[in-house]
Design goal:
Elements (H helix, E strand, L loop, with lengths): L1 H35 L3 H6 L3 H18 L3 H9 L2 H9 L4 H5 L3 H9 L10 H25 L13 H22 L9 H22 L13 H22 L14
Helix pairs in contact: 3-4, 3-7, 8-9, 8-11, 9-10
């Protein structure tokens, strides 16, 4: 009984300490929120000497680098006052807050870097499909040019087979790359990726088998080698224009991480 009573008291003390800590944290956050609503002149009066000097030199740099008036420079620094004061309350100066001198901070404010927006899935899928179209048609076109004698029909290398496989590869590889690029705090889903490879391989096998049926010859003819090369060149050209229009960076072979 004595041990249980002692444990209960210790638990009560821990709970009380947690509640006090949470209450203090809430009060601090409430004070920070109130600072954001204060008058700009009031905020400036609360700047420490070092922070006041930082803001003064920042305004000078804005005027110099941005060729602007003092009023415009003051207007820009006004937007920073609340966060500088909040950091000051927690013992952090503006130099430590921004990790930049007034000159560098002014340059950052005048030329802010835009965060790259993630490329939509459909654009990556189209880009990948066009890439595989160029690769497969170009490869089989070159092979056909070096073949000697009359080759019997083999619908496995027909135009519909190459186009369908290219599009399927383009779409699935984009999704595969998305799975394999780990998100923050997560691991690569190796099991999911392995199963996906098996499913894709099985789907390709079934697709090629269906298109190899003699009855499919009408809609799946084997084109001359020069025709395949022309299709490959057109696909490559369309891909180049498509990537340039949508500013796509990376490819299915060297994917660029997409920011979430």
């Amino acid at each position: 009984m004595a041990e249980e009573t002692k444990k209960e008291k210790n638990t009560a003390k821990i709970d009380t300490a947690k509640q006090a800590k949470l209450k203090k944290q809430a009060e601090v956050e409430d004070q920070d929120e109130k600072l954001k609503q204060e008058d700009l002149q009031e905020l400036r009066s609360k700047l420490s000497n070092k922070n006041s000097d930082y803001v003064f030199r920042l305004e000078k740099e804005l005027q110099k680098q941005g060729s602007m008036s003092r009023d415009d420079a003051v207007q820009m620094t006004n937007s920073l006052l609340s966060e500088i004061i909040i950091a000051q309350r927690h013992g952090q100066l503006a130099n430590g807050l921004y990790l930049a001198s007034p000159a560098i901070k002014a340059e950052q404010m005048l030329h802010p870097k835009r965060k790259p927006t993630p490329t939509p899935f459909w654009q990556l899928a189209v880009d990948g499909s066009l890439l595989y179209l160029a690769i497969f048609f170009g490869m089989f076109g070159i092979l056909a040019l070096f073949q000697t004698g009359k080759q019997e029909y083999n619908s496995q290398w027909g135009v519909l087979t190459l186009a369908t496989v290219s599009i399927l590869m383009g779409v699935t590889m984009v999704k595969y790359n998305d799975w394999m690029i780990p998100k923050k705090g997560s691991r690569r889903p190796w099991v999911k990726a392995f199963l996906s490879i098996l499913i894709i391989a099985a789907a390709l096998f079934v697709l090629i088998w269906i298109l190899s049926i003699p009855a499919m010859q009408v809609i799946n003819p084997v084109l001359p080698g020069i025709a395949d090369i022309i299709i490959a060149a057109v696909a490559f050209g369309v891909r180049y224009l498509f990537r340039k229009h949508y500013h796509i960076v990376g490819s299915t072979f060297a994917p660029r991480p997409q920011s979430k």
